[in-house]
C-alpha cells in the first residue's frame, strides 16, 4: 500500500499530471487522433491555470486547517507525540546536523511546550518515507535538536521506522504502552494534516489532544484568480490535494470513520 500511494502521487500531483497530459496530447496528434490530442491539451491547460493562477490550494488547505484548534487545559500533558515531516532526513544525514523543512514549526512548538512542562515526555515518530528507504529517519537529528536546546535526553522516546501516518500511529501506540505512559498526550503535526492523523490515532485507541502547528494559511480563504504567486499557488495545491487524497483513500480502505472529522 505504501508503494502504491507513492506511485499514485508521482503521477497525479497537479504539475506532473499536466505534463503527462501534454505528452499524451503529442502522442495523439502524432498518431492522427486530433480530437483526443485537443482534449489532452485542454486538460493540461486547465490544470496549469488552476494550479498556478488561482487560490484553489489555499482554499482547500484552509478547510483542513480550520477543523481543529489547540485545546488549552489546566492539566499538564504527560507526553507530546510529534509526527515526522519537519526535518529533511537526507540533508540531515549528509550534513551531520538537523536540516529543517517548511514544517519545522512542529519541532519549534514542541520545544516551547517542553520548556513549559519540564516533566513532559516527547515521542518523535518518523522514518524515511522515500521509495528507496535507504535514509535514516528523523529520530536522530530530532533528538540532537532537542538536546542542543537544553532538553534532557531521558525525556525523549524515539521511533525511526514509520513511513506514513498509519505507521506513526501504530508504532507510537506501542511505544506509549511499552513506556507505561498514560494520561493526556498532545498530538503535534501540521494543522492541515491533523484531520487524518487524529483519526488514525483514535483507531489505535490512543486518546490524544490535537495541537496543530505549521499553519500555511490565515484561516480565511476564498476562490479567486491570483497571478502574482504561481510557485506558492502550485505548492499549496499540491500539498492540499495530497492530503485530501489521503483522507479519501483512508476512508475507502476503512482505516478512518469519515473523510473529514
Automatic annotation (TrEMBL):
Keywords: Membrane, Transmembrane, Transmembrane helix. The keyword Membrane applies. The chain crosses the membrane at residues 7-30, 36-64. It comes from the Bacteria. GO terms for cellular component: plasma membrane. Residues 80-246 form the DUF218 domain. GO terms for biological process: Gram-negative-bacterium-type cell wall biogenesis; peptidoglycan metabolic process. PROSITE patterns: PROKAR_LIPOPROTEIN (PS51257). This is Uncharacterized SAM-binding protein YcdF (DUF218 family). It comes from Martelella mediterranea. The lineage of its organism: Bacteria, Pseudomonadati, Pseudomonadota, Alphaproteobacteria, Hyphomicrobiales.
Amino acid at each position: 500500500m505504501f508503494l502504491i500511494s507513492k506511485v499514485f502521487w508521482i503521477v497525479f500531483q497537479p504539475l506532473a499530471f499536466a505534463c503527462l497530459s501534454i505528452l499524451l496530447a503529442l502522442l495523439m496528434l502524432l498518431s492522427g487522433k486530433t480530437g483526443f490530442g485537443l482534449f489532452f491539451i485542454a486538460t493540461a491547460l486547465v490544470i496549469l491555470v488552476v494550479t498556478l493562477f488561482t487560490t484553489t490550494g489555499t482554499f482547500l488547505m484552509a478547510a483542513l486547517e480550520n477543523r481543529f484548534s489547540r485545546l488549552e487545559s489546566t492539566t499538564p500533558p504527560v507526553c507530546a507525540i510529534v509526527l515526522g515531516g519537519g526535518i529533511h532526513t537526507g540533508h540531515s544525514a549528509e550534513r551531520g546536523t538537523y536540516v529543517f523543512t517548511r514544517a519545522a514549526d512542529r519541532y519549534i512548538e514542541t520545544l516551547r511546550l517542553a520548556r513549559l512542562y519540564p516533566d513532559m515526555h516527547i515521542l518523535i515518530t518518523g522514518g524515511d518515507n522515500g521509495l528507496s528507504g535507504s535514509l535514516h529517519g528523523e529520530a536522530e537529528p530530532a533528538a540532537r535538536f532537542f538536546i542542543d536546546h537544553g532538553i534532557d535526553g531521558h525525556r525523549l522516546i524515539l521511533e525511526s521506522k514509520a513511513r506514513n501516518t498509519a505507521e506513526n500511529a501504530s508504532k507510537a501506540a506501542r511505544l506509549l504502552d511499552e513506556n507505561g505512559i498514560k494520561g493526556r498526550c498532545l498530538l503535534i503535526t501540521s494543522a492541515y494534516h491533523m484531520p487524518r492523523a487524529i483519526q488514525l490515532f483514535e483507531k489505535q485507541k490512543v486518546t490524544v489532544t490535537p495541537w496543530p502547528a505549521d499553519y500555511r494559511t490565515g484561516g480565511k480563504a476564498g476562490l479567486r484568480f491570483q497571478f502574482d504567486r504561481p510557485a506558492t499557488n502550485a505548492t499549496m495545491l499540491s500539498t492540499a490535494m495530497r492530503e485530501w487524497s489521503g483522507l479519501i483513500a483512508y476512508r475507502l480502505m476503512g482505516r478512518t470513520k469519515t473523510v473529514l472529522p
